[in-house]
């Protein structure tokens, strides 16, 4: 014990670091080196007692006996072996009591219902669905879509360039290719997802266009094959850049190599998605059957002149609700290596209680502006009926144990059971006579075959559990909350669940 006295205190320090809450990367590296020394001295191994509980034949016999001791398990087995086990738990009572009717609804919901198909472009569909409501009203349109493919093209181009710069920067920081950070970056170098500040980067840099001016393509609607080509090439280029840094290449040499690599990347993306025109001419009929023509005009000019006066992305702010104990409210956060445009806006999260997000979403809708938000969409969702409610499924009745709600929201984040994976738009809200918010209406991007012709309803209880992010106009946000954006952001690791919507 005396021999291990000093080492034991070091072990406790090592364990505190193991949670990875440290914001000081140099300190983390020192802890890692110290842990190797402790292991070499046998201190770590000596301090750990392993729990061994093998599934012996006797244990397996006990498990089997307990299963068949309850006849309800046999009935549940008969049901779930013949149908979807989750759908079998759906509550008929919730289906009967849930109505897609709301006290406040935006004046113009976009038509047609959009469909991202087999791609991860929900974040782009959600913002363009939000933007089109005021645009359609101003231009007297019955139906309209902005081109999701246009922003997807530019995000792929910018994202690949951003990845190559991340590879250079992490190499210069001394990050090993076998280390967690570089390994994480290499796992999916060009994913489809994204975050709010990445939207701002794209729109303020490249503008937007109507869908008729840059329509969908095969690789827009099913991106996995194009992505596989890009991933392989980007990993090849990552090795080349790291080799150059190992050989003391200058910054100018690295820039030249990245430009050469981006020539090939642009070619692959352009072949798969098409290349947008530098200028567009948009012709259309309005509701009154009048002919209209806009252009020739650049996509950025189209945004500045035709869209920005009614929806300015720079006037909106991103609020998140992350209840983990290590991430207090009233603080500004960012995620390491998360972004899409070199020298663009960094991803910033203003962390606030979920009640504030709910209140501001309702205020925005009452003022006729839909809200872009991020959530864990598949939890407690009856997709066919478009219902998000924590009571939609009675897992306790079927399996004898509850599912999804056994952990708190904070613990679900910590243990990887929940995170924001999908972006949509709130378009309506119900508020009772006492002023209490009861439910929201969602415009999704999965087509009319999901939900109530593409729309869903979400209760406030579900919102509190599974919504993590919302974007509202800064005019609705209290001054003290806006002041948080002036803070120096706390950097979360690249793999933090607050960044998953971008993956």
UniProtKB/TrEMBL annotation:
Keywords: Cytoplasm, Hydrolase, Protease, Thiol protease
Record field: catalytic activity: Inactivates bleomycin B2 (a cytotoxic glycometallopeptide) by hydrolysis of a carboxyamide bond of beta-aminoalanine, but also shows general aminopeptidase activity. The specificity varies somewhat with source, but amino acid arylamides of Met, Leu and Ala are preferred
Class of this enzyme: hydrolase
Compartment annotation: Cytoplasm
Protein origin, superkingdom: Eukaryota
Record carries keyword Cytoplasm: yes
Transmembrane segments: none
E.C. no: 3.4.22.40
Protein name as catalogued: Bleomycin hydrolase
Organism: Acromyrmex insinuator
Lineage, broadest ranks: Eukaryota, Metazoa, Ecdysozoa, Arthropoda, Hexapoda
């Amino acid at each position: 014990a005396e021999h291990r006295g000093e080492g034991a205190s070091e072990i406790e320090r090592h364990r505190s670091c193991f949670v990875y809450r440290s914001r000081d990367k140099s300190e983390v590296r020192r802890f890692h080196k110290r842990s190797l020394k402790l292991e070499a001295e046998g201190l770590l191994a000596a301090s750990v007692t392993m729990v061994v509980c093998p599934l012996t034949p006797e244990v397996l016999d006990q498990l089997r006996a307990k299963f068949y001791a309850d006849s309800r398990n046999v009935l549940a087995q008969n049901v779930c072996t013949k149908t979807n086990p989750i759908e079998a738990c759906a509550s008929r009572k919730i289906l009967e009591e849930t109505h897609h009717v709301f006290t406040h609804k935006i004046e113009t919901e976009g038509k047609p219902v959009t469909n991202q198909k087999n791609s991860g472009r929900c974040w782009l569909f959600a913002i363009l669905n939000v933007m089109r409501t005021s645009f359609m009203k101003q231009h007297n349109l019955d139906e309209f879509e902005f081109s999701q493919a246009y922003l997807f093209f530019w995000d792929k181009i910018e994202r690949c360039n951003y990845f190559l710069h991340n590879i250079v920067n992490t190499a210069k920081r001394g990050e090993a290719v076998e280390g967690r950070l570089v390994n994480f970056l290499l796992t999916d170098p060009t994913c489809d997802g994204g975050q709010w500040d990445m939207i701002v980067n794209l729109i303020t840099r490249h503008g937007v266009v109507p869908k008729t001016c840059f329509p969908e393509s095969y690789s827009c609607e099913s991106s996995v094959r194009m992505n596989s080509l890009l991933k392989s090439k980007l990993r090849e280029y990552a090795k080349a850049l790291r080799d150059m840094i190992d050989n003391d290449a200058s910054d100018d040499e690295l820039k030249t190599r990245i430009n050469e690599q981006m020539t090939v990347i642009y070619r692959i993306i352009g072949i798969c998605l098409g290349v947008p025109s530098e200028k567009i001419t948009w012709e259309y009929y309005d509701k009154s059957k009048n002919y209209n023509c806009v252009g020739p005009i650049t996509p950025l000019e189209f945004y500045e002149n035709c869209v920005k006066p009614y929806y300015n992305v720079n006037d909106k702010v991103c609020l998140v609700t992350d209840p983990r104990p290590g991430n207090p409210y009233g603080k500004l956060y960012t995620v390491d290596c998360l972004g899409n445009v070199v020298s663009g806006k960094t991803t910033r999260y203003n962390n606030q209680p979920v009640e504030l997000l709910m209140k501001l979403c309702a205020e925005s809708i009452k003022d006729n502006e839909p809200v872009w938000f991020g959530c864990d969409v598949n939890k407690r969702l009856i997709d066919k009926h478009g219902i998000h409610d924590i009571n939609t499924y009675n897992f306790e009745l079927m399996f004898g144990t509850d599912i999804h709600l056994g952990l708190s929201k904070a613990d679900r984040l910590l243990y990887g059971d929940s995170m924001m994976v999908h972006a949509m738009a709130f378009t309506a809200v119900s508020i009772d006579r006492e002023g209490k918010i009861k439910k929201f209406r969602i415009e999704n991007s999965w087509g009319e075959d999901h939900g109530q012709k593409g729309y869903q309803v979400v209760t406030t209880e579900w919102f509190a559990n599974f919504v993590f992010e919302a974007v509202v106009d800064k005019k609705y946000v209290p001054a003290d909350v806006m002041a948080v954006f002036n803070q120096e952001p706390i950097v979360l690791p690249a793999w933090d669940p607050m960044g998953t919507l971008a993956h």
